[in-house]
């Protein structure tokens, strides 16, 4: 057998992680013990994943809070791509945003996650960077659908929709006014309109 045999273990090969499971276990720890009190060792013990592997996949502990955003961005992209051209842009955006949300209680839209993000400054501080791909996706759609809009204005509108959605989720998490977070967001976004669309 040669040193380059394909069956030999390779160093540095990427590890496949269930990022959602890691996030769920970590959110539970943060909810019970507080964000600051939970370190990599505790996360490792709760998830069964080594500290070394966790740190390789998450540059900062706060990154774990945002693992659901790529999936939400993908759902947003798919919903907007399938949107018929005759649907008014306001309604299309509202439908796309609602479609991007998950019913998982530990997802970015679940009450435990919302409470953590609202009460922990480090998590709140990382939100703009985490949400940027979602905002960019929505801004691209708005730019395609609204004649004459500038890229900056499309990004500002998309950022406004993200902020309005998050505000609706915060209110929902505090009052439980609806069974589903998506219903609360849809109701709130119904009040927004895009001029010139």
Automatic annotation (TrEMBL):
Positions of transmembrane segments: none
Keyword DNA-binding annotated: yes
First and last residue of the signal peptide: none
Domain HTH tetR-type, first and last residues per copy: 16-76
Residue spans binding DNA: 39-58
InterPro entries: Homeodomain-like_sf, HTH_TetR, MftR_C
Keywords: DNA-binding
Record protein name field: TetR/AcrR family transcriptional regulator
Naturally occurring in which organism (per UniProt): Saccharopolyspora ipomoeae
């Amino acid at each position: 057998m040669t040193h380059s045999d394909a069956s030999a273990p390779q160093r540095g090969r990427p590890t496949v992680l269930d990022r959602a499971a890691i996030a769920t276990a970590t959110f539970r720890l943060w909810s019970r013990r507080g964000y600051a009190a939970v370190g990599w060792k505790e996360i490792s013990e709760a998830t069964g994943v080594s500290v070394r592997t966790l740190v390789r996949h998450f540059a900062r502990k706060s990154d774990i809070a945002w693992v659901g955003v790529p999936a939400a961005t993908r759902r947003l992209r798919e919903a907007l791509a399938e949107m018929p051209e005759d649907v008014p842009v306001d309604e299309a955006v509202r439908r796309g945003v609602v479609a991007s949300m998950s019913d998982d209680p530990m997802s970015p839209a679940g009450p435990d996650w919302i409470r953590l993000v609202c009460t922990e400054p480090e998590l709140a501080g990382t939100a703009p960077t985490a949400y940027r791909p979602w905002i960019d996706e929505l801004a691209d759609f708005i730019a395609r659908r609204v004649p004459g809009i500038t890229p900056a204005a499309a990004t500002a509108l998309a950022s406004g929709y993200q902020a309005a959605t998050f505000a609706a989720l915060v209110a929902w998490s505090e009052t439980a006014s609806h069974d589903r977070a998506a219903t609360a967001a849809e109701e709130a976004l119904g009040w927004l309109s895009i001029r010139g669309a």
